[in-house]
Amino acid sequence: MTFTVAMLVGVVVALRSEDWETVGATLLHGAAVPWVVAAFLANLAGLGLALASWHVLITDDGDRVELPLSGTMFAAGLLGKYIPGRVWGCWHRSSSAASRA
Q1: pLDDT tens digits along 43-61
Q2: How many other CB atoms are found less than 10 A from the CB of residue 74?
Q3: 3-state secondary structure of 4
Q4: Which of 40, 45, 73, 100 has CA atoms 20 to 30 A from the CA of 55?
Q5: Separation in Å, CA 52 to CA 3, 40, 43
Q6: What does the mean pLDDT of the chain come to?
Q7: 73 exposed, middle or buried (CB, 10 Å; 0-12, 13-18, 19+)?
Q8: What is d(CA 3, CA 6) in angstroms, rounded to the nearest whole number?
Q9: Better-predicted residue by pLDDT, 84 or 13
């Protein structure tokens, strides 16, 4: 839960200075709405399939890992590509594994 809250706070801090009136007007323009919805659904489907493949890779050798735990490990690895340093990713994986035991 702490990881999710920290991630949401980071997104809010990063996007706080955007001009949301212009963004909203552009995205909610009549012709753009179907494209925005289609892009959102395609992105969501891609993330879901990537999570499913990650879960299969983890459980393929016989380990019993529940889908929510493999999802948090997948998210940590995904964010690790964009946040410098490896310490927090290793910490998150080890704490996830420890909570599972």
Answers
A1: 999 989 998 998 888 888 8
A2: 20
A3: helix
A4: 40
A5: 21, 18, 14
A6: 81
A7: buried
A8: 5
A9: 13
